[in-house]
Automatic annotation (TrEMBL), chains A, B:
Gene3D superfamilies: 3.40.50.1970, Dehydroquinate synthase-like - alpha domain (1.20.1090.10)
Record protein name field: 3-dehydroquinate synthase
Pfam families: DHQ_synthase (PF01761), DHQS_C (PF24621)
This protein's UniProt keywords: Cobalt, Lyase, Metal-binding, NAD, Nucleotide-binding, Zinc
Cited function: Catalyzes the conversion of 3-deoxy-D-arabino-heptulosonate 7-phosphate (DAHP) to dehydroquinate (DHQ).
PANTHER family on file: 3-DEHYDROQUINATE SYNTHASE
Domain 3-dehydroquinate synthase N-terminal: 62-174
Cofactor(s) of this protein: NAD(+); Co(2+)
Length: 353, 353
């Protein structure tokens, strides 16, 4: 599989991934290699990963606790302190081996340590392969607000190795798949149709590749999210608020990212029908497709009010306005749409129906 | 006074500073302006500053506690939380009004908030005018390690308004003056000679301007500190360790940054005589000049060992080596010099003598 060139680096796939990594390590003169893992990737991915590295380097493994709840400044501080203790310097390399929490947070940790050291992302979940692998977004949560703190900074390379998917449960794969469905909705109806038909996750390589291509094409046009890059946020304005709310709420089970944005996409598709001309037929197609894959989430009145309250912290907002990405039709998004207040409740009603 | 153009922004002086600011604010469409101050600049500088702003904007003043001891992640978190509460968004502007702690930390806070918002630095101390105003270094301390966490990111503009110096005590002015003397040592013997003769701080404008010019010239050649920019670290390898140690130690009075690097410069001048050919005469000139202005610091054996231990965290290190900037002569620095271990004690002995 051909590597995909992004901004200043490339995404390498499967058989090429370790070749590219070994070549890079041989050519660089890193003083030490730090590998950031959580307990899952430590057990399930690290042995495989280490077996592929040729050559003799000095490693330190830093393990953090798994889960979005740990994607915060306290964890960063612990890692920075560990790195200082372990003599990390400006010529150290950080390899982030894990899902989106590890790649987002590890990228932030590396970008701020001594004003920036090199890092390489090795996403091990479907979500992080198709979503976090390109675009240079790094970040952590601040309280309930997702990715409130972060920088845009590019890794040295990204390695997408689909064998790591074998370590994942079905629910995790479905979560990542929601982002792929989004890629169809915002960019390519044909891809949406293909993905809809997929009944298992056995042979994903071509689809992962295509999703990375779509995302890469978008971020290269607009690296700092001034305009077109915003289309990647379809489903995320409501989706992020829902995810944040369930993460903090003690009375609800936590939703995975993909599960939350699946809800967000159904609701924002409804808003698209109301405001930007999405057809009834495509709206129903979207709702049916997501509800077939993702369990319906129950919202009380109280939940809805709290979620709408959280939405005002969305990074896409400015001047007190909440800006949405909506669809004119599947494959044709529009950005910077403002929503009349009464439509939010209707969107929840449509989802519940 | 002509503005000095740096990387992507300019440094504006005195009568031009507020003109430039007002023009920028008028042209931009900021949703809100956050002004970061400490209790000193809140009282002594903010009223003057606000009086110069024309036009009607929405402000929020965020006050933090003064002092290097608060230049840490806890303070950043408090400010980020306050900003979130006050509805800061991606189109908000942050103005950092204060000394190096405020401009370094405020720059970091702005650079990471929602992956980066605009910021403007208004240094109010001599040190921050001549040192922190160009170069784009932002940062905070991690435990005892100075500026361990940060990014390189440029402000929209920097305003150097020398009337703010009237709010400073003599000791603060002397601290900043140490960086100016450094500019002479690393770049221009003539400037060193001029500064040596200065007996008071009444008319500093031309000197501040020249120091900003020197620093700007250096950082423009090497923004990411791969080579020549390192010369700005003269006196700082030992100086930072000394400053960190005194900051953390409960049995010592805290040293100001300039006071610590004055000690560092004397010692590193000694190392220069030993290793890179600095003449005995210039070494004595350097020692005499600094000791005339800065009170001699007493070091016990225990202090020295602790300081040498801290030095290994210096950001300039790599591969376990501590890299020094030394002088061949006044005005002619050399970078990446390694020091035989026994010379450190001799450098302290020379300073004590």
């Amino acid at each position: 599989m051909k590597s995909i060139s992004s901004d200043s680096y490339a995404v390498h796939f499967n058989e090429n991934a370790f070749k590219a990594l070994n070549k890079h390590l041989k050519g660089a003169d890193y003083s030490k290699i730090f590998i950031l893992v959580d307990e899952n990737t430590h057990n399930l991915c690290l042995p495989q990963f280490m077996a592929e590295i040729e050559g003799d380097y000095v490693y330190e493994i830093i393990e953090i606790e798994a889960g979005e709840i740990h994607k915060n400044l306290e964890t960063c501080t612990q890692v920075w302190e560990a790195m200082s203790e372990l003599d990390a310097d400006r010529k150290s390399l950080m390899i982030n081996l894990g899902g989106g929490v590890i790649t987002d947070m590890g990228g932030f940790i590396a970008s701020c340590f001594k004003r920036g050291i090199h890092f390489i992302n090795v996403p091990t979940t479907l979500l992080s392969m198709v979503d976090a692998s390109v675009g240079g977004k790094t970040g952590i949560d601040l309280g309930a607000i997702k990715n409130q703190i972060g920088v845009i900074n590019q890794p040295q390379m990204v390695l997408v190795v689909s064998q790591f998917l074998n370590t994942l449960e079905e629910r995790q794969l479905q979560s990542g798949f929601a982002e792929m469905l989004k890629h169809g909705l915002i960019k390519e109806k044909k891809y949406w149709e293909e993905l809809k038909l997929l009944s298992n996750f056995d042979t994903m390589d071509e689809f992962i590749y295509h999703s990375v291509q779509i995302k890469n094409e978008v971020v290269l046009q607009d690296p700092t999210e001034q305009n077109i890059r915003k289309i990647l946020n379809f489903g995320h304005t409501l989706g992020h608020a829902i995810e944040s709310y369930f993460l903090e709420s003690s009375s609800h089970e936590t939703l995975l990212h993909g599960e939350a944005i699946a809800v967000g996409m159904i609701m924002e598709a409804f808003l698209s029908k109301e405001l930007t001309g999405l057809s009834e037929k495509e709206l129903e197609d979207i709702k049916t497709t997501f509800l077939k894959r993702y369990k319906k989430v129950a919202f009380t009145e109280e939940d809805i009010q709290a979620i709408l309250g959280l939405m005002k912290f969305d990074k896409k907002n400015s001047h007190g306005n909440i800006n949405f990405v909506l669809l004119e039709s599947i494959g044709n998004p529009v950005i910077d749409i403002k929503i009349p207040n009464d439509l939010y409740i209707k969107a929840f009603d449509y989802y519940k129906d």
